[in-house]
Design goal:
The protein has 133 residues and is an alpha+beta fold. The chain has three helices and seven strands. The protein binds zinc ion.
Length: 133
């Protein structure tokens, strides 16, 4: 747990408030001590089918990564950590399999997410889990 920083956990949860989806979700990509990607989930209408679908926070964060200007040829998220959290009742924020696959392709080494209670009053770090990718 030593690499997990509480300030990035709380920043992700705070950012999720901006989502307009029923399950408000946000993701941060952190490399070293630097946020290189951020996203919230949003509802979009598919241009072909006309169906409404949620565009995942992790996907959005991983699609817009800031490069280190001193290492222009390196994968920007190589060795980075993906924080994935929800704001509100549901503390089960593990990224879906598609987002985990994309995270692996981008070089993310670890995902950090919540798992456990649905009670909004009892949030604490015991609900924070991590997995190496
Ligand atoms: Zn996803």
């Amino acid at each position: 747990m030593s690499q997990i920083k509480i300030e990035f956990v709380t920043a992700t949860i705070e950012m999720a408030k901006a989502s307009t989806c029923s399950k408000r979700h946000a993701a941060l990509v952190v490399r070293g001590n630097r946020v290189i990607g951020a996203g919230i989930n949003i509802m979009k209408t598919h241009p072909g089918t006309g169906r409404r679908a949620s565009y995942h926070a992790e996907f959005s964060a991983l699609r817009r990564l800031k490069r280190d200007p001193s290492k222009p040829l390196e994968m920007p998220a190589k060795g980075a950590i993906l924080y994935s959290f929800r704001n509100g009742f549901d503390k089960r924020s593990r990224p879906c399999s598609d987002c985990i696959q994309l995270a692996k392709e981008k070089g993310i080494k670890m995902i950090v997410f919540s798992y456990g209670s649905r009670d909004p009053e009892d949030w604490n770090m015991d609900f924070v889990f991590s997995e190496r990718l």
